[in-house]
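Sequence and fold
=================
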Amino acid sequence: MPRRFFNFLLDLLFPWQCLYCHRETANNYPLCSDCFNQISIFDDFICPICQKLIIPDANHQSCRQKTKLDALGCINSYHHDILRETIHYFKYNKIISLSRPLSLLMINFLEESLFFSQLPKDNILLIPMPLHLKKKKQRGFNQSELLAKEIANHFKLEYNFNLLTRIKNNPPQVNIKNSEQRKLNVSGIFRIKDKENLSHKIIILIDDVYTTGATMNEAAKVLKKAGAKKVIGLVLAKG
């Protein structure tokens, strides 16, 4: 029996329950349309330092000295209950099908973004934030890769899952409160495999959650040093 038909039978016989409201849903993932529609989307990309919307000809010179990220796109806050719970079930309960509604939130955000609409699409390269090989084996997947692939396919953008690699399995940032210690914790954790593919590219870094931004900033620093023109972050939630 083909796997697709077998999965269809399972969904028919044992429909998903929404992980938030616990009602049965016709979706082939555990999030109902009512709860999904309660996740509002922020307006557009912002400066990761001053939090102001990125507008044409905006001068963020003082902010540029504090980060290598040129812009940051966030779907909503990590304090949004439904979004937070969905991300948690996706990552830690390994419900991979939740990549569909979560990536759709990112796609909807990009389709409404004035900033994104002005970027040359043939020069964009999507890169997921990499996991260390040990952590990826433990989890079984990289959640950022699943999101990036859905976005790349929708917009027909170039993507590369192997160009940026994580060479150090550093402790989780969530356990470190001091900002300077966070920077030290992520220093030197990334490596570029093929610098030739980065020359003058606009990189969109995909991740699930942005807290202090130290990890994403470290990735942006390595990517720009290797020749990237711009590095833009896109995440589901900002802590």
Q: What stands out?
A: The two ends are 44 Å apart (CA to CA). DSSP finds ten helices and seven strands in the chain. The domain at 40-238 is CATH 3.40.50 (Rossmann fold). The chain has one domain: 40-238.
